[in-house]
Structure formats: structure tokens, C-alpha cells
User: Fold this.
Amino acid sequence: MRSERAWYLRVFALVCALALVLAACGGDDDDDGDATGGGDDDGTEEPTDGAGEGGELIDLGTFVGDPPEFLDPALNSTLDAYQVINALYDGLTEIDSTDPANPKIVPLVAETVEPNEDATVWTFTIKEGQTFSDGEPILPSSFQRAWERASDPDFAGDYSYLFNFIQGGAEKLAGEAETISGVEVDDEAMTLTVTLAAPYSNFDAVAGFQLFFPMPSAVDDLADQNEWDDGLMIGNGPYMLEAPRTDEEIILVRNDRWAGDIFGNTRPKLDRIVFRTSADPETAYNAFEAGEGDTANIPPGRVNEADENYATTLDVQVSGSYHFEIKWTDPVVGGPENKLLRQAISQAIDRDEINEAVYEGTRTTSTGITPPGIPGFQEGLCDYCAYDPEAAQAAFEEWQAAGNSLSEPIRVLFNAGAGHEDVVQIMIDNLAAVGIEAQADPRSTETYFSELADGACVICRSGWYADYPTYDNFMYDLFHSDAIGGNNHGEYSNPEFDELVNQAKQETDIEAQAELFRQAEDILLNEDIAVIPINWYLGDYVYNPEKIANFPQTTLGLILWEQVELVA
Amino acid sequence: MTFVDQPEALTGTPTGEAGIADVHEAQPLGRDVLRRFRRNKLAMLGLAFIVLLILAAIFAPLITSYDPIHDRARGQYRDGPSAEHWLGTDTIGRDVFSRIVYGARISLRIGILATALSLLIGVTLGSIAGFFGGIIDSIVMRITDMFLAIPYIVLAIAIATVVGRGKENTVILVLGLTGWLAIVRVVRATFLGLKELEYVEAARALGFSRLRIMARHVLPNALQPVIVYGTIAIGGVILAEAALSFLGVGVFDPTPSWGLMIENGRRDLANAPHMLFFPGLAVLLTVLAFVFVGDGLRDALDPKLRGRE
Amino acid sequence: MTSYIIRRVLLIIPTVFGALSFLFFIFFALPGDPAELIAGGADRNPSPEAVAQVNDRYGLDEPLIEQFADYWKRTLSWDLGESYEGRRSVNEILGETAPRSIRLGIWAIIIEIVVGISVGLVSAIRRYSISDKLTTIATAAASAIPVFVLGYFLQYWFAVLPGPNKWDLPQWAQLKTQGRGDDSWLLFFIPTGDTWRHLVLPAITLASVSTALAARMMRGSMLEVLGADYMRTARAKGLTERQVIGRHGVRNAMLPVVTLIGIDFGTTIGASILTETVFSWRGLGYTIAEAIDARDLPVMLGLTLVVVLAYTVINLIVDISYAWFDPRVRLGGSETR
Assistant:
């Protein structure tokens, strides 16, 4: 009996020791996968001719949490689905971000893009000989068809407000017109002429957005346009759907009829791409580490780990802003009378600490709203975004001296379970240090933006990835009065700001336009302090450098799937 | 969640024929119970741990040197155990040890209150069902069956979403409202079983009212498995709270509940395992402690289960 | 006996009806206008036209009672409706997800039976020995670890570490963390090809808690049996301990455990949400959880209905077979239910 007992004890102790050892040394092997940061990520590619071709890639990083709601470009409003849509379709124009600080709009499906003098009429000539993946020729009417479809009031998606830019678009959306009057096509001459509702010099950038992608005649046969998404969508991009998508997978295969990209490449490298949906970022990353996928999203807190062991797209400065909106109409926090309070709040926040603690120092602390990579960007626009607790306290006391007071803690809203808790906690601590009482108000992620749309914001977490690299995508879409009820959750409204933005949109001279936008942002940030910028986004993909030789992510966050290449 | 549904498994009271407990008539004397309990080493260990835990929770400010929510060590994020931070720091530099100690308050509070709520509802319904029998019994059993049939998680998420996610009281309510199901059956089974016993018949023959019989003789008997179940259930509730946090319907940050710490910690398993390990260990030890005490109670209260001596 | 069976079968109806109705009304008590949530999806706010469209399509602006009646009318003809997201028929979703959960459940039960009963048996026979104490601690620990934590650990130790990026063990030693592989099955539940590697970890995780409980239950009941009078008689008759245990002990001890396992099967399918989420095993549990989040009422109700039915029917079978074995009930004894 005695020896038996000892034997059991020894085995038990051994197992426990083994378990502890395994748990402890799980994280620090770096003798695999050499982290030489993989390939280029800015799209500089000379035309290649089939070298390094072939293979299949399994992606676990795009759909983390939910399968995409829509793959139909007319309806989609999320970046993840856009990754796939961008591989399925090509638009009139494309963004060349070879130089990340100076993105250029280049014609893609269009041969030429010509605005008239005051940017009210845009003429696109479509290249000859292009076809959809089923062989149907791409004509100017392919675009008109798609635009009429996407502006149908019964079918319209979240981005349909963009049709307001085009003359007759607003009427079409309101159901008062059958077609968009400002669009004219000539399939013989291969021209597409668009007359805008107001002068807008960046329309060429907008024209390349997913909402304006072309559609084949197959959509005309559909009884219900919603079915397009459920079936085998036909497009003109480098890849096409192998089969209708399921909740678990979206499978793309090479489109042999692809016309090529703006660099002259005519053949996508990969044969096949499988997009898998995972339950959450950690399980996806686990699966990636176990070799069940070739790419993944970097979960919060594992940035340095991913960077050390694999290759990442962390060096891509994605044009996106992470900020907190403020309710302009809130009696305590909003309006010109409470500017000092907002100043105190903004200066009390230690943004660098947030970056260090939550993002392991990888993001860039904001000095304004509009991020680098947007033409016209200027560093340091914000006067009150630097950490200055003394100034914050002084401002707060001055605000109180004017007879104001906080009867209850200021509520900071955010969507729970998405990694913002720590940011908000640091903010609240920072505010408490200068005497401002605030409390966290977490909301359910599913209903968060709906609640904001209903006016729930006091100080609310928000973020925005650029849809296309223009200044107005930030200034107009987020802070113009037109955007109230849309993305302007704080209901900010300043006629002077609106006027500057309107003017800027019409200005055709690039320098003058940039100057006008900067003046508008100055009002937003310094005169009104209507928003609290925190930091700017970075590339967020991790990939296996032993399998993948090239994995470019653009400044819009999109992966150029046609250029992704496997190690030979 | 079999913890919830099968109290028989935990209390070791096999239910004989569908629903009726095999109850033994002889009642052990109080002193005997204590003596038997004390001899059970595991149970005593568990009890000691629980007492320690409660003391730590009450005197938390005395044994910790950091505030669990607001004290952050700048630059020391996700650090392992060190001299200043005995169990390391978390994602934004808070001291893990302090959070675990204050977290004990929350876990114990949730565990005890939710279990108390479950027991209250369960014992009441179970005695009513067992006492009155007939239609009332059927109704109670139908309601119980109805709730039992719905997957526990579905019920929990639904209730949490209606009442409002993220608050501690929500969690207590959710766990309390889903935990009574198990105890109803046990209590009812005991009532039904005891109703048939001879000495109850004898008491009736002597003219005592049914109510008095039930209260004086049956209820104390039924309370035995209830006490055992309740003790073990506290552990189950603490576990369930962790599961609710995993699903996003538990308490929200920055409350230092163990369940939330585990859920947040599992993300950093590979590079900062201490963030998961220590709260996980706390849960494990606490649940074990309650289970051992519950086991010990059961063994002490019912000598026949100990087999040959 | 027959009257007992008939009554039990009839009692299923109010149970199922009550459970589903309760869920139905909870859905409408949830915050947020369902039509808005469905029309808008997670991120943005939908236009009034889109909301009106959804209301039209699903009748969400009709009075609650009407919707309720409608719902039951359709369900009774087994038309479980359409998912709000993607408009797939719920019957179809059910057909896809139910077999996955059932297969996982079957294997979890197999593990529970084999491991649970044998461990419980052994520890009862060697009562108070070291192995018994260890087993007590091990089973208690197994039921005290949150399921998702166990799953995560298993994933790390058995899939990530042996995988191509770390230790790079041979293929057969690398288990998988996600999905179902080829999804090829023999005789409905035996995995072939690549599938078994995806099955092992989730099955063990799902089985962990119930196996621990089954082991403890077996031990408790076995101890009870070992001390019973008829066992003493058997020993007095001169049978060896082994014969005593084998012939009388085990069979009697197993009865309550069998009950437990039977009930477990019913609950496992529904309660597998945590395991299914961790391993991306898209069965009923996973899909129901997703549906609640997305306020996808038809999917949530439809799948839950099946789970509720499965649970009640299995319970019924267990109860009836139990009653069959108990002569008190079989021969029409006193009113027990």
C-alpha cells in the first residue's frame, strides 16, 4: 500500500509540474517564423508575369465574430465585407497608395476621367473590351444599371446618401423620380456622363467606391434584388465566387476574364482564397497559430507577440480615426457655453498612456481628426489634444466659476466587449485626476449605433475608416449638419463649419481645397472642441511569412488580394 | 449545465422511483454530525479556506495596497508577479492581487445571494408542491419542467438582456431565477417520500394537523439535501458567473469579478498567463472548497452513505 | 402503467407550449425595436423605408397577440419560418445544425459513460485510498473549471503547440481548434477522414463537467449499494466480493447514473453553447446564441423548440423506463405525479 501511494503521488506531481511548465513557456518561442516583416504593403508592383503563381490561402482575419451581413456592394457598409467585395468587383477608379502620404485617384475600368471646369459634370470613358466574369461586356449602361438599382428607395442601403451628390439622386431616393436624371450613358461612344447636384471636386474618388460598382444584366432578371447576395454574384474583379456564400465560408477563385489592375498586372497570383468566419479574435488567432489558417487579425494585447513571431501589416498607417464624439445639444457638455468643460476633458486625457497600455504603443496618438494619408493632412491641427492636466484643471475651474457644475457624473458610452473598456477606464481616471467625475456607460454592441442614432450620445466612442481618401469623407460625412441622423452622432452643427466644407468640396485647386478643409477642422477642434480625437488606426493583419511572400494592405485597410503571393 | 439540473448527483441522494426520494428515518444527533464533519479532512480544509476567503473579503483594504479599479502602474502592463505586484498586473497596469481580493467580495456576494434566492424560491415551491400534491403539484411541476426544458444559457441571456446587462444585480437575478429549478425537485421529492412514512401516519392518527407535521418533521428532513445542495451550488453560481461573462451578459468592466477577469485573461494566455491563471485558481479553489464542505456535510448528516466502517 | 405513460405524454404539451411562449414574449420585451434592429444590422441606423419594409415582411407591427397566434399556427404545420438575416428557411438551418450538435453530444455521452462510470466504480471500490482521494479532487476540479477556459487550454496544448508553427509534430498528433474538417461521418456519428481531429477536443470539453458529475454520482450510489442489506446477505451467502459487486452491486448502482446520463443527453445538446462557441462548432447551441444576439426571432425560437422537444421527449423516455423497472409504478401503485 505504501509504495502504491507514493507512486500515485509522484505521477500526480509530475503531471502538475508538466502542466505548469507548458503554461509558462507557451509564449516565448521565437525560433520559428522569422519576423522579417513580410512583403511590401503599399502596392508598389511592377507587372509580373506568372512568377510565384498559384496556391490557396485560408484567411481567418477578415470575418471575426460575425459572417458579413451583405456582400452586395449596393448594401454593404462594413470594412470586412468590403475586403471581399473589392476582390469581386472593380470600379471606375482605383486608389494608388504607392506613396501612402499621397494617394492618387487613377482610372481603372474607366479609360479617362474628365471633370468640367467647375467640377459639376464628370465624363468617364469606359475601356473597350472588358467583360464580367461570365463574358458579358462592361458598358456604361452596366454602371447606370447598378446605380439605379442601388438608389431604388425600396432597396437602398446605408450608403445611399451618396446619391445625393448626383443631380436627380435625391429625388430618386425620395421616390419622386423613376431614374437619376444626372446620369447619361452612351454605349456606342462608351461614355458615362454624370452631372452633379453641386460642384464636387473629389467625385472621382467617390466614383470608385463600392456603391458605384457595375452590375451585369443578370440582376435585371431577379424577382427580389435581395437574392443577388444569396446566390452566385457576378462581377468584374480579379476573383469570383466559387459558390454562393455560407455562414462559415466565402470561397473565391481566380477570374480569368479580369482586365487587370492599375499597375498592369493582369493575373491574380492565388488560385483560390477561402474566407472563414471565426467566433472571436482569440479563437481565430489560436487557429492561425495551430496552422489552420494563413492569415488572422491581431487580437488586442497580442500585438508584440504577433510582431515577434510572424509578419504583420502593422507598418501600414490606415486612414482611420478613433475618437469620442460629444453631444453638441447636451445641456451639460455641449454647446458654445460649455466649451471650457470640453477643453478640460480633452486636455486631461493622457492619450499616450492609452496608446501604451491598450495598444502596446502601436497606434499613433491623434493630433487631429483627419488622419495621415488623406491629401491635405497636416500634423498638429488640434490645440487641445496634448496631455496637460494643469491646463485642464484650470479650464475646469474656470467653467465652474462661471456658475456651472456637474450634478452627476458625465456618462461615457461605448460598446461593450469590443476592447474599449480599458480606454474608457483610463479616460475616467484621467478626468478624476483633475476633478471631473465621469462614469462608464457600456452598451450592447448589437444595438450601440442604433442607440446613438436615436440620440443616446453624451460622450460616445466612435471610429471611422476612410471610405475613400478624401478630406471631406471625414469632415462632411461625420460633422456636417447634413450628416445629423446619419454618422454625425453628436448632432454637431455650425453654419460656419458647414459653409467652409461646402466651399472646399467645390474647390478645384488642390492646395486651396486642402486649406479650406483645414480651416474647417480648426473650427471643429479648436473653436468648438466638438470631438475628442484619441488615436489613428494601423494595419491589423498578421500572416505567416513562411507561407506568404507578399500581403499588401492599403491605407484604406483593404487587402490587395490580387497581389497576394505565396512563398515559392 | 448539469450542475443546475441534477442535484441528486451533487447531494448523492439517489431518487428512487421517478421523483420520490429514498429518505432514511433516523436523524443523527447534532453532536455526532459535528464530530463526523470534523474528521473529514477535505471538508475541514474547505471550511478553513472559505473562512479565510470571507475574512480577506471583509478586510480587503487592509491586506491590499492598491485600489482595484483606479490604481494603475504606468508602463507596467501585463507584468508577471514581482515584489511590488505579488500576482502581477493586468492589461492597464492594475494590481491583480488587489483585484482578486476585492473580487472575492463580488463573487461571494453573487454566489451567496443568488443561491439564497434560488433556495428561497425552490424550497417554497417544492414544499407547496410536495405538501398539497394534486393539481398544485402538477402546476408547479409543469412550470419547473418548462423552465428546465429551455437551455439554461438561452434563459440567462434573455433575462439578462431584459433586465439590463452588466449590473451585478442582474447577474444575481439571472442566476437566482435559473437555479431554483434543481432544488424544487429535491425538496418536493423529500416531501413526497416522507408523506408515506409510518410515523407521519402515526402522527396523523394522533390528530396532529398536516401542516404541523410537515413543518416539524418533514421540512427539517428536506432541508438536509437543501443545505448540501446550497453549499455546493454557491460554487456552481460562481462558475456560472464566469460563463455569463464569457457570453457578454455578466458584469462589465471595471468591476473586478473573477469571471470577468478570467474572460479577459484568457485572451492573453500565451504571453501573460498569470492574468488567467490566478483568477482561475481562485475560482477553482473556492468552488472546490464549497464542494468539499458540501460533501462533508452530506457524509456527516447521513452515516449510511459512508458504507462499511 | 399505460395510464401513466399517456398522462406523461400529454403533459409534454403544456411544457413545450409554455416554454416557447415564454421565449416569444421575452423577445418582444428585449430593448430595441426588432424591426429597426433587423433592418439596420449592427452598425448603422436604417432609413424609415427599410424599417417599414421589415415590418411589412414579417408583420412586426401587428398586435402582439396576432403575431403570437400566427406564429403557433405556422409552427404546428412545421413551418418554422425564415431567418431574419439572409432569409434562409429555419427548417434548412435546423437540418444543418442539429446533426452537428447531436454528433458532438453522442461522443460527449460516450466519454461520460465510459470514463465516468469506470472512474466512479473504481473509486468506490477503493474507497478512501489515495486513488479515491485523487479522483475526488480531480473530478471536483474538472467540474470547477469553467468550460471555456478548459477548451482554451486544450486548444493551446493539443493544437497550437503540436502545430506546424511550434513543435510541428506529425499530422496525426495535431488536433484542430476550429470547424469540422471534411465533415465526413460513418453511420451518422463515427468520424472518418480528417474529421476526428476536429472532434476530439470539443467532445472532451463538452464531456468534462458531466463526466466528473457522473463519476461522483457513480461513486456515491455504489457506496450506498455496497452498504445495503441485500449485499450483506449476498456476502453472508458466501459469494466472493467480486461476485457480489459484479452480480448485484454494479447493476443497482448504475440505475441513478443512467438516469443522469439520459437527462444529460437532453441537456447537452442545448447546453453546448459554450463549447460550440470556443471551437466554432456550428451546432444548435452556437446558432441559438448568435440568433439571440442578432434578434433573429424565428431562428431562436425554431431551434430552441427542437431543443425543448428533444429534452422533454428524452426525459419522458427515461422516466417511463425508470417507472417500468420500478414494480411499484408498473403495477399501478399510488399517485406519484
Observations:
- The first strand of chain A starts at residue 56 and ends at 64.
- The CA atoms of residues 1 and 89 of chain A lie 75 Å apart.
- DSSP finds 16 helices and 21 strands in chain A.
- Chain A has a mean pLDDT of 86.
